[in-house]
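re: ur question from yesterday

yeah so i grabbed the chain u mentioned. its 122 aa long if i counted rite. heres the sequnce exactly as i have it in my notes:
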Amino acid sequence: MRRPVITVIEDDENVAGLLEFMLRAEGFAPSIVRDGRAALQLVRKNGPPDAVVLDHLLPYCDGLEVASAMRADARWAAVPIVLLRPSAARGGDSRLIDACFSKPFDPTALVSRLKQLTREDA
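ran it thru and got these structure tokens back, copy pasting raw so excuse formatting
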């Protein structure tokens, strides 16, 4: 059975490491991108993953700019995006994201949501 590919776009090394560990343990195939510029290059050059976990605050450009670029690219337009935002920040544009979690987030709830978003019949 194919493992769903999850691209994690997160600049905080601890959060990225936690997400990578959790996702692998739950049967996903995570890949990590560390900043907004690298994320935009990924969108331009690569095919889409099954879902994206996207930090709101990134170096070079923020998560909503990255989400907007994903939605503007026909190959990436339907990829589920889960936004991680600071607890004080407002939610993202609902047309750009599929789910939003405030930091610190509940890892179990995040994994559960990713499972829902990546189901073959969803």
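noticed a couple things. Residues 13-25 form the longest helix (13 residues). also The chain has a mean pLDDT of 91.
anyway ttyl
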